[in-house]
Amino acid sequence: MRPPRRDTLGHVPTLSDVRRALDELYPPAWAESWDAVGLVCGDPDEEVSRVLFAVDPVQAVVDEAVAFGAQLVVTHHPLYLRGTTTVAADTFKGKVVHTLVRHGIGLIVAHTNADHADPGVSDALAEAVGLRITGPLIPDPTDPAGRRGTGRIGELPEAEPLSAFAARVAAGLPATAQGVRAAGDPDRPVRRVAVCGGSGDSFFAEVRAAGVDAYVTADLRHHPASEAREHADIALVDAAHWATEWPWLRSAESALLAVASQHGWDLETRVSTHVTDPWTAHAPMSFAPPTA
């Protein structure tokens, strides 16, 4: 595990201070209407000297925060996306809440507001696989600069076969049991690429309109992927959901530490390397693509 990053310039911020900084980096107003972002639990007046960043607000992450001595956990995924009627500790989400409160740890979520930010989740994904970003896949019409939006479009330094590009994606992302799978001719040249961290199979029309050679995302289902391949000769590269969003944690950590430096905060941070992707095993099958 990489050691925590620390800025030891001065005073310790409060949860309210850190919340304000994160809200400026990833404004809640940028989130989708169905999303649940922002402060989930925590006392805004309590001091925060240690922050843990993670993709999922699951018990293993909360236990890591306790061991780290964190006063705040920042996750990408919401704890209660669809609401609840109970936080009883005999439910797994209730246990998370009880553990956080018992140890004086706050929870802040930056989900689709971080997806739409500049830089955001897809920027980090694009950079992790070696792309030079040229713009958003779906621009945010409220951004006059045209930099914010969903997904990103980028280019490789030079074209390479799909097989090599899929290997590049696998090398650039944290390892998971799923690995990386690709759809398309392995020898097909790839240079211009669209990416979308997390589930991205609802954006195939925009991907086709972007004129890309390949699309990197996660959670590709059979029918949308099959239909996308029939519509156009665009290679598909499918990685684990968790893996495509994890690179953003480093970006968010660096952004918060930059704010800490500006304000003279004494703040220590850590990015969780605990793999919270739900799939834990992969059994390879002998497979040879059909020949003509």
TrEMBL record:
One of its GO terms (molecular function) is metal ion binding. It comes from the Bacteria. GO terms for cellular component: cytoplasm. Transmembrane segments: none annotated. Belongs to the GTP cyclohydrolase I type 2/NIF3 family. Homohexamer. This is GTP cyclohydrolase 1 type 2 homolog.
